[in-house]
Structures are given as C-alpha cells and as structure tokens.
Amino acid sequence: MTKFWYLPAVVFFLVVSFSGCMKPSLEDEINKYLNKDTLWINKEATILSDQFEQSMISLATDEKATIELLKSKLIKQSENYLSKLKSHMIYNDKIKNAHEQIIICAKYTDLGYKFVLKNLETKDGLYHKQATEVFDKADQAQRIWKQRILDLGQKFKVEIK
C-alpha cells in the first residue's frame, strides 16, 4: 500500500488536467459570443436591405409614389438598423460616418428615382438612354447601401460590449 501512496494524487492530477481541457477557454467563449452577435448583425442587415429592396421595387413601379416617401423609408430603415446596432455595440465616430454614407446613398437613389418618375411617360430614345444611366446609378447606390450595412456588422464585431 505504501508503494502506491502517490496514486491518488496522480489520478486527481489527471482528472483535473483532462477536465480543464474539456472546458472552453475564455477566448473561445468570447469568440463564440462575438460570432453569435456578428451573425445577428448580418441577419438584421440582410432583412433590412431586403426590405429596402422591396420598398424600392414597389415605389419604382407605383405611379403615385413620391421620392420623399422612398427617401424617408430608406432613412427610417437605416435609423432602425443603427439603433439596434447601438444597443449591441459602442456607438462611435466610425458608425456615425457609416450612417452619413447611408444617407449619401439615399440621396443618390433619390436623384435617380426623381429623374425616372418625373420622366415616366417620355418614350423617346434619349429618355431611355438617360433613364438607364440613372437607374444604373440608383442601383449602384442601393448596392453600396446594402454593402455598407453588411460591412458595418463585420467591422465592429470586436467592439461589442
């Protein structure tokens, strides 16, 4: 019996060592939390950009639609997204700057649809050429807006409280 006096200590040491390996590290826990929140942000961003896209489509095809309505919907959605973002993250100058960029995109989109809706009944070739160019710019502004929202989710994932 005295030969194996150290056996309980060795068993205890092995059990403690292996149980330590089974527990996730603090870094793993933090990364899991960050990834979960980043997924939430990207999901929200996708929902909002999809809603915006649907709004754009319905407003572009509605003859009674006004640019002010389109613009207010876009800005309201960006405000909604940013308020959700603020509840999860530190609201700093970079986020404010991104918000300003969203509003710039809204203005580009505004200009595009204003031109198209104003000239909706014109059918000559010049109109079609100009309308195509402006629609392309509006479409580009929409893509920029969607990408900025998605980038925002990625960029600030390390600053989650």
List keywords for this structure.
161 residues; mainly alpha; Four Helix Bundle (Hemerythrin (Met), subunit A); 0% strand; disordered C terminus
Strand proportion: under 5%
Overall pLDDT metric: 56
Overall SS class:
mainly alpha
CATH class: Mainly Alpha
Q: What gross morphology would you assign?
A: rod-shaped
What's the number of structural domains? 1
The strand count comes to 0
Count the helices. How many? 5
CATH architecture: Up-down Bundle
CATH fold group: Four Helix Bundle (Hemerythrin (Met), subunit A)
Q: Sketch the major β-sheet.
A: none
Question: Can you give a write-up of this model?
Answer:
With 161 residues, the protein is an all-alpha fold. It has a single domain (31-159), classed as Four Helix Bundle (Hemerythrin (Met), subunit A), CATH 1.20.120. Helices cover 81% and strands 0% of the residues. It has five helices and no strands. Helix 2 packs antiparallel against helix 3 (67-88) and helix 3 runs antiparallel to helix 4 (93-118). The N and C termini lie far apart (55 Å). Residues 157-161 have low confidence and may be disordered.
